[in-house]
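Researcher: Before we compare anything, I want clean individual predictions. No alignment, no superposition, just each chain on its own. First chain goes here; please echo the sequence and then give the structure tokens.
Model: Echoing the first chain and its structure:
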Amino acid sequence: MVLPIVAYGTPVLRADCEEFDEGTDLSELISNMFDTMYKASGVGLAAPQIGLDKRIFIVDASPFGEEEPENEIEAKNFEILKNFKKVFINPIIEEETGKKWNFSEGCLSIPGIREEVNRHSTITISYFDENWNFIEESYTGIAARIIQHEYDHIEGVLFTDYLSPLKKRLLKRKLNDISKGNISVNYRMKFPNK
């Protein structure tokens, strides 16, 4: 079932989310989250974005794997991204390392805005998968970035929080318009001020 995505300004997007009890049946929630993400053409979706203050997010980076690699390193990364579809339940980023790099990020809860965000190139994360198997893995590049972006959501952080004060001032009107529903998107949204 496709759910509405909550817009910038909705309090749940600033929530420090709670863990699920281990073993909870999340199959319907996970299915609904993937349906919602695909309908909105996203590559990641966290529970706060559908109004739920819980520690779960999903990713499917396969659209990045369809790009044409420019070199051997990119080819290897794109091959990984082609099959990078995962569920992260009760995740904890254990470590962020490597050189920081900028990349243009957007967010389904903040449509129409893309900005450069500086993040670490490598992360180690522990989490449960959809079958409650405990996993600890390291990721680099785009995969690490997508995970960091979605992880921020369950910590109450938005990508706009990383922007300079000047950039935030320049975006203030656009962000206000989003929170009031004065935007046009091709997926269902729920607005705080409507």
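Researcher: Okay. Second chain, same rules.
Model: Second chain and its structure:
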Amino acid sequence: MHLIFFDLDGTLLNDASEISAFTKDTLSLLRDKNILYTVATGRTMLSAQPIMDGHVFDLPQIYSNGVTVWDPQTHQLSLENLLNNTEISTIVDVVLTHGITPFVHVIGSNDQHYIFHTATHHDVEKGLVYRYFTNSKAKLLPLEELPVNSQVTNISMIGDNDAIHKMCLELNENENLIAYSGPAMEGKNFSWMDVHHRHANKGSAVINLKKQLGISEVICFGDSDNDLSMFASADESYAPENAKDSIKNAASAVIGHNHKDGVAYFLRERFSL
């Protein structure tokens, strides 16, 4: 039995960060053939679920690169490799030194999401707060109110390309941390960055779900560095045309562009949908 894992941004989603109508129909065709699928994304559960609303994803879903796994059937949330107090302080200190606002993502009791942050510094950060975070299900609080030993899944931020690049290099020198970054939708001068524990990765979460569900073969789709561990754990791995060259080189094959429903067209041919 196959189990398919989809990365979201740059892979299953188009350039408008949406699941297109054609891709939605393709997922329906997979269900008709009893072909299992789910998501494995670097996005937080809070960020991803509004995109997935209205689409059927019945199986456990991997968020924050494996830190969080949500089972929609049992409504259980599993957390692995959370950031400890020392690691949180290390990240926050680096980010504040570069004049960037850290957004600390916490899961509290009853799976309530919290985002603790310092004062915003520029319009892009303010836009992130007022256009997205305040309209989400998360509670926003000042960073100084972050309780000791909170369940911190990751710390995210957005800033100018140069600052993000420098922070990414610095934080990736820490043996306990891993940072990923990429171009922000807010403009070509800005990048996002997300930091979590180095032991958290999509590959480990994929292996765990494969065992849990008794799956014989795993197929995965992804476009960025955080997908490499998933590629290594899969029987087949595919990179869209828009993926980084290193990801294409690691994949079983390269498929169509994410904005041209590359994943959906491939699946229709691969499974004769």
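Researcher: What stands out in the second chain?
Model: The first strand starts at residue 2 and ends at 6. Additionally, Residues 80 and 158 are 25 Å apart (CA to CA).
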